[in-house]
TrEMBL record:
InterPro entries assigned to the protein according to its UniProt record, in alphabetical order: Cobalamin_biosynth_CobD/CbiB
Pfam families reported in the protein's UniProt record: CobD_Cbib (PF03186)
Alphabetical keyword list: Cell membrane, Cobalamin biosynthesis, Membrane, Transmembrane, Transmembrane helix
Protein name: Probable cobalamin biosynthesis protein CobD
Primary role: Converts cobyric acid to cobinamide by the addition of aminopropanol on the F carboxylic group.
PANTHER family documented for this protein: COBALAMIN BIOSYNTHESIS PROTEIN CBIB
Similarity-based family: Belongs to the CobD/CbiB family.
Superkingdom of the source species: Archaea
Organism field: Haloarcula saliterrae
Primary localization: membrane
Subcellular location: Cell membrane
Mode of membrane association: Multi-pass membrane protein
Length: 310
């Protein structure tokens, strides 16, 4: 059972399929299990802590078990199921498509752009100008590079390498790790708001999980922009971003495009620049796409270099 084959399967499905309909997506099914936690509780931190531990572990166990069972059949069965699981744990093409749509609609149909942004960013778009809509699209697609692709792929590669070193089956554990990361991120996106105490444990766990992927995403974006300078500029703006992680890829995007990225009332990145026009926003979305391809390449090279591919 080869993790490299699983990675190739996931990348091929991403390129050809993009993302299955919401009703058939396991992440949506997970969301239906998370949703009942979103209410008032007498002891919200206790409930939230239990949910933050139990639900991601359950998702990981289901995926690891499916890969294990498939691996006991045809030679490539485990790799194919692991590739499918990895594909469902990641997202790139759909994010890029939605971001491009918001950027285009901001020029011609602002109401459609505001509605489309809801699929990318959890913010009130009703009063956003075209420039702020384009800014939100670039911010969201840069942040989701880390959440939706780099984090689960990094977990897959890291756990596969550790498992091979320990002499235990790599593929079920690696696929389970990717699913675990996706589940943690899903819980944070649904519950991780200041007003929701039940979501605090999931938010803190997500902060820890995303520490390395966010910085790796920033480095990959800098490569996509063809310069290391955006990394240095991004560092200067991090203090103004509430999240300890999302400021890195967003800041690199702001510096690489030389535009201001702004969430009104929350943060401003590169404050002395203008908001992105359509051309700059389009370049930002393309740079995230390039960084996404680089992520797959780096993951494959890492697995091969570590001897995990056999």
């Amino acid at each position: 059972m080869s993790p490299v084959v699983a990675l190739l399967v996931a990348g091929a499905l991403e390129a050809v399929v993009g993302e299955p309909p919401t009703r058939y997506h396991p992440v949506a099914w997970l969301g239906s299990l998370v949703a009942p936690l979103d209410r008032e509780w007498t002891r919200p931190l206790l409930v939230g802590s239990f949910g933050a531990v139990a639900l991601p572990l359950a998702a990981a166990a289901v995926v690891a078990g499916a890969v294990w069972v498939a691996g006991s059949g045809p030679p490539l069965g485990g790799a194919l199921v692991a590739g499918l699981a990895l594909f469902l744990s990641t997202s790139l093409r759909r994010l890029l498509t939605v971001a491009r749509s918001v950027v285009a609609d901001a020029e011609t149909d602002i109401d459609a752009a505001r509605e489309g942004l809801l699929a990318l960013a959890g913010r009130d778009a009703a009063a956003l100008s075209p420039g702020l809509l384009r800014s939100a699209a670039v911010e969201s697609v840069a942040e989701n590079l880390a959440d939706g692709l780099v984090a689960p792929l990094s977990a897959f590669v890291l756990v596969a390498a550790v498992a091979v070193t320990a002499g235990v089956p790599a593929l079920p554990l690696a696929a389970g790790a990717a699913a675990w990361v996706k589940a943690v991120n899903t819980m944070d996106s649904m519950l991780g708001y200041r007003a929701k105490r039940v979501g605090t444990p999931a938010a803190r766990l997500d902060d820890a999980v995303m520490w390395l992927p966010a910085r790796l995403s920033a480095a990959l974006l800098a490569v996509a922009f063809g310069s290391a300078r955006p990394l240095a500029h991004a560092r200067a703006w991090l203090a103004g971003v509430p999240s300890p992680n999302s400021g890195w890829p967003m800041g690199v995007a702001a510096a690489g495009l030389d535009v201001r990225l702004e969430k009104p009332g929350v943060y401003v990145l590169n404050p002395d620049a203008a908001l992105p026009d359509a051309a700059a926003a389009g370049r930002g979305v393309r740079a995230v796409g390039v960084a996404g391809v680089l992520t797959y390449v780096l993951a494959g090279l890492s697995l091969a270099a570590l001897g995990v591919g056999t």
